[in-house]
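Database export, one record per block. Field names are fixed; values are copied verbatim from the stored entry.
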Amino acid sequence: MTDVTKDACECLPGVGTVEKFQLKSESVTMEIISLGCIITSLKTKDKNGKIDDIVLGFDNPEGYLANPRFFGAVIGRVANRIAKGKFTANGKEYQLAINDGPNAIHGGLKGFDKAIWTPEALPSGVRFSLTSADGEEGFPGELKVWVTYILEGEVLTINYRAQTTKSTPINLTNHSYFNLAGHGTPDIYDHEVSIMADAYLPVDDTMIPTEVKPVQDSPFDLRKPVQMGQRLKQLPGLGFDHNFCLSTAKEQQKQQQLCARVYHPPSGRVLEVGTSQPGVQFYTANFLDSSLKGKGGAMYPKHSAFCLETQNWPDAVNKPHFPDALLRPGEDYNQTTWFRFYVA
């Protein structure tokens, strides 16, 4: 049984009213706000019964207004990067704002993470809805979006749905940063990660994918558990910020296959992730630098969290051999991801 309660609203001048919801099961307590559908808190017990908040974030909604690292937010219309901010749809080339080096990222200058969504309480969760106008952030078509959070026992399920009036790229995900030792813990080096993927996408120096490559005999082979600290030492560059390629077979996607597992031996906490999406972006918080003041005054340095962003492959709208990134009129975008939190 999950208790769903609505907490006090907060009016942000020039932005709107932000509503907060708490979902509480026997093993997980989480808070979500209507600004960006942001997961602001997620508390679980460790093997000794100690409760910790295991997601990074801020103490109040004002902190999320800028949210340069997208803590806990729903990302859209298109998560991840679009090369040079350009794509073609409806026989027309579109140019988006450039906000990540030479590329576009995470929906633009004002993506879904900065929008006020309309909430609806459900028996075990909450559904948020949003209408994105034709031309918003340069994207074609009026897009109606629904994001539903359902908490049942150990499992948080997030469903993303959308419909459009014109063909438009879409790629929705949640950008929560996890540290199973508790947010504010300085690193994730003692976490063990496994990702059930036979291939990944190498990237160029602007983080755009260049090819599909097998993980075999590379530091990107995470099919068996590896300690993050040891593997990060073997990895060129700042850390993981790569898409791992999951099955694109429709029947397997419907089964919402298990795609990743992270275990933290000192606390006993385990996070498992399953999804209908064709990829998962594994990111080790390479761009955190202790400059953001987080919850309770915590500082968040590099490698102090990890993200498992289930999504389509980066720049798929420009790569015909990647999974289709366009949503067309009359179609229903419908993707589901689940997160299971338990103690081993």
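Remark 1: The radius of gyration is 19 Å.
Remark 2: The chain is about 5% helix and 40% strand.
End of record.
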